Structures are given as C-alpha cells and as structure tokens.
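Q: what sequence does this backbone want?
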C-alpha cells in the first residue's frame, strides 16, 4: 500500500491532468445539458466546497469533476461517471447515479467519518464514492441546478463518510 501511496503522491497531478485531457478531448460528445450543450461549469457547496465541471458524453451519461476543499482533505479533486434517469417523465428534472474517485492533497488533519484522520507524511488521500442525486435544468436557461449525496469510502486513509453537495452549473 505504501508503494501505491508514493506513486499517487508523485504523479497525482499528472494523472488528473491526463484524465481531464482525455475526457475533454473526446470527439464523441452529444450534449444533454441546457439547449443541447455538452460542457458546463459552476460552483459546488457543502462537501466539497469549490468549483465543478460537467461533460455530457451522450443523452444519458456524463463525467463530472469537482475541485475544492472538504473534510477528506484541504484540497480535493473528485471525478464521477453518471447515468441519468427520466424517473419523473420530465424534460427539466432527472435523477442520476454513478461511481467516482476522490483524491485529497495536503497533510492537514480533519474529521472524516466521525473521526479524525491524517493523510500521512505524503499528504495524499484516496477514496471511492457513489453519488446519487437530482438535477434541474429550467427551460430556456443555460443553467443546471443539482443536489447530490452518497457514501465516500476512504482507501487511504481508511474510513467511511457521507458527501452532501448542491451546486449550479452554467453552459456557455
């Protein structure tokens, strides 16, 4: 496990940039965001607190990325792959769910899963998460409003917590 932590610590920024380049460079993007747009950016509050982007890959699936601070680490990057469901038979409101990963940077202590944690000497934490939520895309606006929650399972450091977030994205 120490070998994996060392590898992530030394290459985390390159891995994150590479994944983001791969996703944003995809030419097979058919949008399902407001007005048929595929890329949105905005703000997310609660846990994490920071910035968010969303890239629709088809009418049902999308990648989301968040960067900010949270109880899991002072600087945190999340990446999720989401499936959207038309549970309400509505063009404006949809449910979503999907798995994701979380990387935390910084050696600060915090509260995670009801207990204190420390990301260790290398200051890197890794967690898996499963998000469930609802998004609202008002007609004739370039906005998406979302609420999400789900478990976050710390792989390093170990622990279980709950992510709860709300946010808004603008689709230029």
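A:
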């Amino acid at each position: 496990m120490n070998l994996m932590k060392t590898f992530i610590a030394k290459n985390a920024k390159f891995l994150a940039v590479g994944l983001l380049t791969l996703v944003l460079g995809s030419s097979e993007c058919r949008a399902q965001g407001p007005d048929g747009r595929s890329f949105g950016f905005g703000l997310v509050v609660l846990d994490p607190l920071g910035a968010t982007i969303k890239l629709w890959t088809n009418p049902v699936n999308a990648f989301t990325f968040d960067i900010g601070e949270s109880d899991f680490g002072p600087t945190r990057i999340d990446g999720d792959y989401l499936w959207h469901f038309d549970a309400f038979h509505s063009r404006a409101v949809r449910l979503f769910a999907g798995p994701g990963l979380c990387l935390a940077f910084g050696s600060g202590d915090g509260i995670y899963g009801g207990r204190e944690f420390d990301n260790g000497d290398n200051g890197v934490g890794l967690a898996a998460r499963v998000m469930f939520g609802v998004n609202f895309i008002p007609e004739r606006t370039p906005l998406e409003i979302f609420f999400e929650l789900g478990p976050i399972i710390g792989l390093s450091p170990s622990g279980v917590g709950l992510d709860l977030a709300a946010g808004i994205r603008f689709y230029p």
